[in-house]
Design a protein that fits this description.
With 295 residues, this protein is an alpha/beta fold. It is built from ten helices and eight strands. It has a single domain, classed as TIM Barrel.
């Protein structure tokens, strides 16, 4: 299979989440059936709070890689995990031909939730020490800083440390203001961060979703977004329509600003992806064709 990092930019990638515990994976595979029709370069699979869905993460990522012939990326988190458990997971991924992982600390409710690793950088070091270059490692980045960082500058210092450990690519936390992302990207490049930075976009489909997003990751919400969420109130259909339109425009603008990739947080909503895909496809492939012609 073609290496993800050898593909022509801008890349086009998706994130999905697996069911928790022993729940059936049939619904998730139905979503994947739809998503692969949009020819993504990569599909990442989340890990669940505290690793609650990690077995499903391994299974589904393996299916994406081997059944669908799409690059699968397994999320790995430090929270509540030992070195032995992580090695067992990585061995399973390796046995199933999955060689791409996204190394994360994970959401933390209390310091006691942490296992033998306290930071994503420790997890990255562990993977490199145990497996060398057998895995391509992605890391997360935060255009508006990690919620626990004191400043964007401090956060970039930690990001540079992760990159220097051997990270191959960066996937950004979601954001709604492209100016903020592009200004942050300039600072990252000035710090010497050279890895591809893939821009994370989440379409807003409900009022509840936007409040949860702000609470979890601290993303700022532009006035335009607040206006349509407030204007449509409990009319979820109208909010979804406006959210899809906003995400489509956001992606098209990012492509004009030469982002190296678009990572769509799908929330397992294949129909939402279908509609965004229809709106961006001609722009995305025009951009790819122009870059290919320049080579």
């Amino acid at each position: 299979m073609e290496n993800f990092f050898e593909k022509i930019a801008p890349s086009y990638t998706f994130e999905i989440f697996p069911p928790k515990g022993n729940a059936s994976t049939a619904g998730t595979y139905a979503v994947i059936d739809s998503l692969v029709s949009f020819n993504p370069d990569l599909i990442s699979v989340t890990y669940g709070a505290g690793g609650s869905s990690r077995d499903n993460t391994v299974e589904i990522t393996s299916g994406i890689q081997n059944k669908y012939n799409v690059c699968g990326v397994a999320h790995l988190t430090c929270v509540g995990t030992t070195r032995a458990e992580l090695k067992a997971i990585l061995d399973r991924l390796k046995a199933n031909n999955v060689r791409n992982v996204l190394a994360l600390r994970g959401d933390l409710k209390d310091e006691s939730d942490l296992g033998e690793f306290h930071h994503a950088s420790e997890l990255i070091s562990f993977i490199k020490e145990e497996y060398g270059n057998e895995f391509d490692i992605f890391a997360a980045c935060y255009p508006e800083k990690h919620p626990e960082s004191k400043s964007v500058e401090e956060d970039l210092i930690h990001l540079k440390e992760k990159c220097d450990l051997g990270v191959k690519g960066l996937i950004s936390q979601l954001f709604f203001d492209n100016d903020i992302f592009c200004e942050w990207r300039e600072k990252a490049r000035a710090m010497g961060i050279k890895q591809p930075i893939i821009a994370g976009v989440m379409p807003i489909t409900s009022a509840v979703q936007i409040s949860k997003v702000v609470e979890l990751c601290g993303a700022s919400v532009p006035d335009r977004v607040r206006r349509f969420v407030n204007a449509y109130g409990h009319n979820q259909g109208a909010i979804k329509e406006a959210g899809i339109a906003y995400a489509t425009e956001q992606i098209i603008d990012l492509l004009t600003r030469d982002v190296e990739g678009i990572h769509l947080y799908t929330m397992n909503q294949a129909d939402t992806v279908r509609r965004i895909d229809a709106g961006i496809r001609s722009v995305l492939y025009t951009k790819r064709y122009a870059l290919r012609s320049d080579r």
